[in-house]
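Supplementary Text 2. Reproducibility record for the structural model of the 322-residue chain.

All settings were left at their defaults, and a single model was retained for analysis rather than an ensemble. We include the record here because the model underlies the residue-level annotations in Supplementary Table 4.
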Amino acid sequence: METRRLGTSDVQISPILLGTWQAGKKQWVGIEDAETKKAIRAAVDAGITTIDTAEVYGDGHSEQMIAAALSDIPRDRLVYASKVFANHLKYDQVIEACDRSLKNLQTDYLDLYQIHWPSGAFNSETVPIEETMSALNKLKEQGKIRAIGVSNFSRAQLEEATQYGRIDSLQPPYSLFWRYVEDEAMPYCAENQISILAYSSLAQGLLTGKFGPDHEFKEGDNRKKNKLFQGENYQHAQEALDKLRPIAERYQCSLAQLALAWLIAQPQANAIAGARNAEQATANAKAAEVSLSAEDLQEIDSIARHVTDNLDENPLMWNWAS
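Retained model, structure tokens:
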């Protein structure tokens, strides 16, 4: 798989990244460690070099699973991206959180370290971005991290962060069915050579087409709160998927591969895709081989508008409060 430059850093990432939220088990159901390790290994074997995780994914369990799966692979062949959560954004907390992630991942450096959510999110204490960036800049000076990124930041928050140091990536929710980032943040990223690392790039599995019209998620599965799986949004998604299927058949690829191929063809965009097992990981990697024509990219875009044009103005994907 060809790699791309992360922002203006010297880090090279794969355009398809492996996401490992589910590897932490928390907020997911039916996840098995043995299958998780096989999925991580299969992703790397298929050419995915870049693995995205976070301290909050199972309180470090996701990071530990990555280390367990890849302990025998030379570190310079891998790109590790982790995140510090919103409740650890004071200077000393950032330093401590990074050290924990390094220990969990059994490495002495992170290729990318990201602020997971802006200060104040989830009722966390408000910490000036200048203080958090100061800690991240210190970690970079020490060689503990190679690049700095932010996740779930608006354009205004991204602009403020860049006043205190180089930001090489933005990680927003972004898929064919969830495109708020295109309005303001994406143009800024394009202008400033900031890579977009799209999470929920398959709309938490919706874009795979495997969930039928009457699907119900089990209690404990975070997707039960995902607005795309609710009411008219879900109906619109099913209608769009039916129109996307003939295009996928034309390219001899799955719906998931079509959605990922569309995403990595967008300005600055790379796709983080999770995998429960080795088969899913290998299939996701193959999306990098699907080259869509300009006409098909436009048609796919048009079909997806049937979903996105009917969403509300709130850019948060989950109804956490309900």
